[in-house]
Amino acid sequence: MFRIRSCLLTILCAALPGMISCSWSPAQQEILERYNETAGYIDRNEWGSAAASLSSSTMLLLDSLASDLQTRGLHGYESALDLLPVLCREYIDFSGDVTMIFIQGDRAEITLSSVESRKYFMILEGDYWKLSLEGIFRNRIDAALTGSYVRLLSVTDSL
Fold first, then answer.
1. Which end of the chain, N or C, is more open, meaning fewer C-beta atoms within 10 Å of its C-beta?
2. What CATH number was assigned to the domain covering residues 24-158?
3. How far is CA 60 from the centre of its chain?
4. What is the Cα–Cα distance from 45 to 72, expressed in whole angstroms?
């Protein structure tokens, strides 16, 4: 009898984490679907679809950066769509499973299971959840420019 209970307890303990991690609320499920869709576009190099799934602040940052690069004579990056593949390949890594989705109003935080415990943010724009990569791009570019006396302006600084 003890052996049967022990065996059942072992099976239950092994199955429980899988059952818990799959139980998303309808709102979390919607966000997860949009995140997976956008990550898929980026992974498959479908840049037009990816751009349409990114937050307006991300696209505004990329447009502003492309414009600034043109002004400084660095040609080849004429639009946000030209910069998006370069920055995604350099700074974005979707590896890992989604372990947590925290929603607060029109913002959602997604945590991935990975060595670095990466976090991505979704923003509700109209009726659609869109992936915001602005903070990641801004932080990584600023870190790369450290010591160069160049500062990436905030989107609001340029308005």
1. N
2. 3.10.450
3. 16
4. 28
